DNA sequence: TTTATTAAGGCCT
DNA sequence: AGGCCTTAATAAA
């Protein structure tokens, strides 16, 4: 089957599962300050915790817990970044018990401490490299704590994409280092861990346009390359490939690789999966279940 | 003193 | 063994 035919095929399921996932996202998004537990959410929605966990994970590639963390982190960036709150105040505002939690959140998801993030990465070394990916050239950025950024570039737009990402840490020292980012790229996009029979799982909240883009992404089988143009055509706006690129690679998407067996040599790594998380939407894909266990 | 980071220890799988 | 949590000591500004 051609990619175009695949994109045209409507596999978007509707029904109880989707509705459940939608409600979970809504609940967590609106009520993150209470840091609801799995049990809290499940009982509110009238399902068992395990049903909630499984259904949500299957659809999104993220556990409800991970999604809550992504939402919390998103607000945390705003509070300590734009609003400049002290870490303690921000922690309490977010419903966390203290700055220790906030620290964990930033180290695991942003590969930097909350203080480093707050200061715009002052004095921080950020290495970057460009690597091929199923969504075009990927800009991969890493600190010595791990992957700190990932974006996608249109052909010829590599420098612009890098600059766009670099704005997140105006105080950081950028170092071109293709070799050190290659390992991350390999882990994130390791196609041999993908199951070709399973489509991308995408759960989304966004503008109409973004939702259409993500629905198109949902139809791309794992490990199958597509292009911005293909997606643009699939959503009926063949000239919108640039906007598609923006929707895929920029702000609204939180992107998480749930699991992978390739562990770093450094035992200090708090995770072999890293995510950059932004806004309230997320794109996750399932790696083969076999590699997760 | 205020703020940020890291440690200690407990509680769950 | 490790994730996640609270509390609190220690470091830095």
Give a structural overview.
This protein has 293 residues and is of the alpha/beta class. It folds into 3 domains: 16-114, Orthogonal Bundle (Arc Repressor Mutant, subunit A); 125-189, Double Stranded RNA Binding Domain (2-Layer Sandwich), CATH 3.30.160; 208-292, Orthogonal Bundle (Arc Repressor Mutant, subunit A), CATH 1.10.10. The chain is built from 14 helices and 8 strands. It has helices at 3-8, 16-31, 38-45, 49-60, 64-82, 87-93, 99-110, 114-118, 158-166, 178-188, 208-218, 228-234, 241-249, 289-292; strands spanning 125-133, 136-143, 146-153, 173-176, 201-203, 253-256, 275-276, 281-284. α2 (16-31) runs parallel beside α5 (64-82) and α12 crosses α13 (241-249). The protein is globular and about 50 Å long. It starts with a helix and ends with a helix. Residues 3-14, 201-206 and 249-293 have low confidence and may be disordered. The chain binds a DNA duplex (13 and 13 nucleotides) through residues 65, 86-88, 96-101, 103-104, 113-115, 118.
């Amino acid at each position: 089957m051609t990619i175009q035919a695949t994109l045209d095929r409507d596999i978007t399921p509707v029904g109880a599962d989707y509705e459940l996932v939608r409600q979970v996202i809504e609940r967590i998004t609106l009520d993150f300050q209470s840091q609801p537990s799995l049990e809290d959410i499940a009982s509110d929605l009238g399902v068992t915790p395990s049903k909630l966990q499984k259904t949500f994970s299957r659809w999104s590639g993220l556990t409800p817990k991970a999604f809550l963390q992504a939402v919390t982190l998103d607000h945390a960036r705003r509070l300590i970044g734009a609003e400049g709150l002290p870490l303690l105040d921000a922690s309490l505002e977010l419903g966390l018990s203290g700055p220790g939690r906030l620290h964990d959140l930033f180290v695991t998801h942003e590969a930097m401490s909350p203080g480093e993030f707050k200061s715009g990465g002052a004095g921080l070394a950020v290495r970057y490299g460009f690597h091929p990916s199923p969504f075009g050239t990927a800009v991969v950025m890493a600190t010595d704590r791990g992957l700190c950024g990932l974006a996608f570039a249109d052909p010829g737009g590599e420098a612009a994409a890098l600059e766009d990402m670099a704005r997140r840490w105006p105080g950081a020292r950028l170092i071109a280092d293709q070799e050190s980012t290659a390992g991350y790229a390999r882990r994130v996009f390791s196609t041999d861990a993908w199951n070709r029979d399973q489509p991308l799982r995408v759960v989304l909240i966004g503008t109409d346009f973004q939702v259409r883009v993500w629905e198109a992404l949902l139809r791309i089988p794992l490990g199958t390359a597509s292009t911005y143009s293909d997606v643009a055509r699939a959503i009926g706006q063949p000239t919108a490939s640039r906007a598609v690129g923006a929707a895929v690679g920029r702000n609204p998407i939180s992107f998480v690789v749930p699991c992978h067996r390739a562990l770093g040599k450094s035992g200090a790594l708090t995770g072999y999966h890293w995510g950059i998380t932004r806004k309230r939407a997320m794109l996750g894909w399932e790696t083969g279940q076999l590699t997760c266990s």
